[in-house]
Amino acid sequence: MTPDTDGLPNPLPRPPDELARLQAAWHQPGGWRWLSVVNNTQIGLLYIATAMLFLLLAGVLGLMMRAQLAIPDNALLSAATYNQVFTMHGTVMMFLFAVPIVEAIAVYLLPAMLGARDLPFPRLSAYAFWAYAIGGLGFFCSLFFGLAPDGGWFMYPPLTSREHSPGLNADFWLLGIGFIEISAIAGAIELIIGIVMMRPPGMTLRLMPIFAWSMLVTAMMIILAFPAIIAGTTLLEMERAFDWPIFEATRGGDPLLWQHLFWFFGHPEVYIIFLPAAGLVSTMVPTLLRTRLVGHDAIVMALFAIGLLSFALWAHHMFTAGLGSLSLSLVSAASLAIALPAGVQIFAWLATIWKGRVSFDTPTLFLLGFLFTFVLGGLTGVMVAVLPFDWQVHDTYFIVAHFHYVIIGGVLFPVFAALYYWAPLVNGHRFSEAMGRWVFGLMFGGFHIAFFPMHITGMLGMPRRVYTYSSDMGWNLLNLISSTGAAVLTAGVALFLFDLVRVARRTEQPHGNPWNAPTLEWVPFGDYGTRSIPQIDSRYPLWDHPALSHEIEQGRHWLPGTATGRRETLVTTAISARPSHILMLPGYGWLPLLAAVGTAGFFLLLTIQAITPAFALGAVAIFCVWKWLGGTDQAPPLRTAEAAAGVSLPIGAHGRASHSWWATVILLVVDTSVLASMAFAHLHVAMLADVCPPPGARLPAGGPLGLAGALFIGSATAWWWAGRGRDQAVLPRWRGILFVLAAGMAIAAFLLGLDAYRDAGLEPTRMGWSATIAALLSYQGFHGVLLTLIALHLTVRAWSGRISPMRRATYDNCALLWHYSCAQGIFIMVLPVLVAAWMR
Amino acid sequence: MNAFDATPLTMFRPASVEALLLDHITWLLIGGAVALLAVMSLLLALALRRHSRPIAAAWWIVGGGLGVPAVLLTTLFLYSVSVTQGLDRARPPDALIVDVVGRMWWWEIHYPDTPGPGRVTLANEIRVPVGRQVLLSLGTADVIHSFWVPAVGGKMDTVPGRDNRLLFTPREPGTYRGICAEYCGTQHARMGLTVVVQTPAEFDAWLERQARDAIPPDDEAARRGRQVFLSRGCDSCHAIRGVAERGRLGPDLTHVASRLELGAGTLRNDHGALARWITTVQDLKPGARMPATHHLIGRDLDDLVAYLEHLR
After folding, report:
1. Are the CB atoms for B135 and B92 separated by under 8 Å?
2. What is the pLDDT of residues B162-194, one digit of tens each?
3. Are residues A311 and A268 in contact, defined by beta-carbon separation less than 8 angstroms?
4. Fewer beta carbons below 10 Å: N end or C end of chain B?
């Protein structure tokens, strides 16, 4: 750090136009053009608001269910409607509320908490948000046409196969959810890079706020878990659309394969929404109790432990599916073991509360409500992890009670605490404390009245997902109480909305630091984030340096203005957070929104089989993304700029120092996980057969496969060859030919492999084994299309001299994709051969 | 004995050796959870006292969060493993084998080892003798269902392509309700069944009657009713052994009048129930695979019902 009289990075006085230039660079469009914003404070708010809208919509569906079940033999909803309603309630709550709300809060809060001006990929955030909002609303509207999915949020085949669900309803789920996941993954990539690379100078991993830790673990879990459901939905849609019997037992598929894929995603999913909530709790508890968090390190370790363990217990949703008893015992043990890191967190919070001084503000009330409710949900979680108990209560209302305790208690209450706690950041106003107490009382009371009796209803035998029950079952009173509680809970939410509207209408004022919080998001900020990016040496910077806020506002910390006149933020090293370079960020624009409209429209129209408009919109999406990419990878106007007095930092970075390179690496982890899920499907189906390949199927000849492999290697080599010398000089134009050559070889390799399998008589409709191979080959075919587009893009870039030492990120990142795709091609071609050899 | 006195779907009235074990562990877990919730609530209440105080962080986190739970959970796990050990082990020589096939939305029941020419096939009702181990072989004709009769034991899914099994040893005579526990489509809610535990003598007599072909009609109305059954197409879905055996889509009606309930627990099979079921099936169980037969009225209906009610 540069010496100065106070040891601060930048001296006073600041240049007079510095702030004005910063403000100009971060200027937001007004009026209807505001929809083209991309920066995180705006997109984050839209994202939170949209997620809350889905909470309300799915909440209404929940109320409809409770109205129907309030009395026995009720005819309010028909069986068919009820089944759509409960399916949508679960689906919307999980996919359109729970995951988006935690990502939304992170998108909104994290940059401020990390002192960054924005997240690393603002347009990706905007695109992910709009795709989610448009696609989600379109998906929800399927209810109004009786086209909503009705196979449960878990969509088990064969109930969801073409035979038993011939309508479009299931397709809405498979295509709708499949693509909303893409949006969640985009958010996760953004958050990982943001947390790892955009922390303020001095904020080493040890000093990183616990919410950032929790989001880091969560985002990594999204990266590993969501691909399983993307693969699953793709496979099931292939079965439905092309009659490929992947999950159909009579033709050698297996319905349990779906359950494995679904729960390999579905169980981590529960922790994907809980861990951020836990992070929010760990952030609020110290402030509200006016003391430092007890066991910070233990909590961080617990977050990682939960993240890891959550991948080991998916099969506890299949305790009654007839799996082997040894594997069930192992899963049971893992399910019990996950109570340990949860216990560590709970005791750390308890100890912090014990140590601190409590005043019962609304967020504190919600946190205490969370603790009590979550402990109860955790205890019932331990109960259902015990096999013999689960055999009785599995798929009863006991489970409904359990997971609502965990999710409403463990996620919704912390989210409400967070809304009360962080509300002042939005326009400087707190919610009403008087009303807040009522909101909490109604929500907490209503929740327990609604859901506690369900434990008993379940033990008295009421199964889940029934649209009605007869009056002689002994469940009448309990159900009536539950429905009453749901009404009370609703009253609490309604009162909250009333207060929300009241506060939202007030004029903006500086937010100050109403809770005397220690973390950076309470430093005054504008559209540009904070005036300067703070130097950090504490976990509780605002407590340990009371003057920090003022210093930041004076512009005495890092990067107090804009060096290039454009949007910028500071990138630091991953572990020790030393300033590395200045990253130029894109400004607002319509491309992300248009690309999202194109993507969402493509999937929705594809679902209703409007093929031509679907592909037209798909082309719009691709065009927008291509335009958008055209603006990236520009040479910066300056090579270096001064981020602090005497500290000159490079602008932009290449290779492993570049944020985009790491984002591509993470994307490849996603890709690998999808591939692994599909390969698992093949392995699973192959192992079900007595012999492999099953009777009637053959393996392809070795010759063509070998040639295909050689061509893949050739393609990768040609790509590598094409980019040689890019760090020395502008790449010669003729290298464009090599990109075309590389693409040609990759496509030829794919077609050769495909042909080899077709020559061997691969008939995907005949048996599950062949269908899983066809799915893998299709996945490689999709990569072939991608590689073709990439090659065209790079050829144009090479031809126009836009691959050069300062502009090589496009090549570098595409090289990762290219080499991966070629390796994947070889893997897919030989996998069935290897599996067959291994089974022999 | 009839369905009115059936034990409801509660977990707390175990009537088999296995269910009794599950019941023990259930009460242990409920007791443990209540006790731990009380302890945690007390800790939380104490923590909320208004003045701050120093704490020994390591004791809280390592002791409270890790140590105590680890001991409790390990004990619980070992206990649960010891309880369930061998629960899935059949003693085939003396076990009674019953095939159960889940269908949208009823249960088809077969007794594969019965004396006599016909295979005993019935719907939504399983009768077993007290004291003898029962091995249910669970299959499905369509989607995944889950067989659950809380009084006799835990649930087990019926999964296409898999041969799942459930064992239980009934301890006391009675009638016990069951229901499908895995969501299986429109009428998942109305997919009940009953298990009737009888004395061995009662059971043998019942099985012997069930193994016989349908009783021939003994009066004019029933005779005409049998004609209605054959001429109105009922036989395209329903079989009556000795009369029409090709119908396989709906329940076998050979001894339909002897059953406790109709429509997988939808109606008690008392006088007039069959007539109600036949004419208003789509009101009683909307979406059921049996078409509404509003056209069947007047004498035809009376005769058909007379015939079916005579099939004891």
Report:
1. yes
2. 999 999 999 999 999 999 999 999 999 999 999
3. yes
4. C
* CB contact at 8 A, A614 and A60: no
Query: Strands B125-129 and B192-198: what pairing?
Result: parallel
Q: How close, in Å, is residue B209 to chain A by CA atoms?
A: 31
Q: Which residues contact A355 (CB under 8 A, 6 or more apart)?
A: A289, A291, A294, B52, B53, B54, B55
Rounded to whole angstroms, the Cα distance separating A515 from A504 reads: 20
Is the pLDDT reported for residue A225 higher than 90? yes
**DSSP for B211-278, written as a single string:** HSPPPPP-SHHHHHHHHHHHHTTGGGT--BTTTB----SS---TTGGG-SEETTTTEE--TTHHHHHH
* CB contact A282 to B (< 8 Å): no
CA distance linking residue A20 with residue A18, whole number of Å: 6
What the block records as the tokens of A425 is 């950041």
Residue A351 contacts B, CB cutoff 8 Å: yes
**Ramachandran class of A646: left when φ > 0, alpha when ψ lies in -120 to 50, beta otherwise:** left
Q: Distance between CA atoms of A176 and A73, rounded to whole angstroms?
A: 33
The full DSSP string for B137-148 is EEEESSS-EEEE
Burial B275-292 (b: 16+ CB within 10 A, else e): bbbbbebeebbbebebee
CB A89, CB A58: distance < 8 Å: yes
Which one, of A405, A295, A362, lies nearest residue B37 by Cα?
A405
ipTM of the complex: 0.96
Q: Decide: helix, strand or coil at residue B110.
A: strand
Q: Do residues B33 and A484 lie in contact, with contact meaning Cβ atoms separated by under 8 Å?
A: no
Selected residues 205-264 of chain A with any CB under 8 Å from a CB in chain B = 248-250, 254-256
Query: B202 to chain A, minimum CA–CA distance in Å?
Result: 27
Q: Per DSSP, what are the bridge partners of residue B182?
A: none
Write the pLDDT tens digit of every residue in A365-400: 999 999 999 999 999 999 999 999 999 999 999 999
State which amino acid sits at residue A435.
M
Residues 6+ apart with CB under 8 A from A74: A67, A68, A468
Q: What is the mean pLDDT of residues A12-23?
A: 93
pLDDT digits (tens, 9 = 90+) for B197-255: 999 999 999 999 999 999 999 999 999 999 999 999 999 999 999 999 999 999 999 99
Under DSSP, is residue B100 helix (H, G, I), strand (E, B) or coil?
A: strand
Select from B128, B201, B200 the least CA-distant residue to B166.
Answer: B128
> Residues 452-511, chain A: which have Cβ within 8 Å of B?
459-469, 472-474
> pLDDT, tens digit, for every residue of A28-50?
998 999 999 999 989 999 999 99
Best B12, B13, B16, B40 residue to mutate vs chain A (most A CBs within 10 Å): B40
State the smallest CA–CA distance between residue A455 and chain B in angstroms.
Answer: 11
CA atoms within 13 A on the CB side of A96: 30
Which of the four pLDDT bands, split at 50, 70 and 90, describes residue B3?
very low
Residue of B nearest to A472 (CA): B8
A contacts of B69 (beta carbons < 8 Å): 339-340, 343
Instruction: Dig out the tokens for A590 from the structure.
Output: 């319509």
Sign of the alpha-carbon dihedral angle for A94, A95, A96, A99: positive
Q: Which residues contact A500 (CB under 8 A, 6 or more apart)?
A: A431
- d(C-alpha A762, C-alpha B84), whole Å: 45
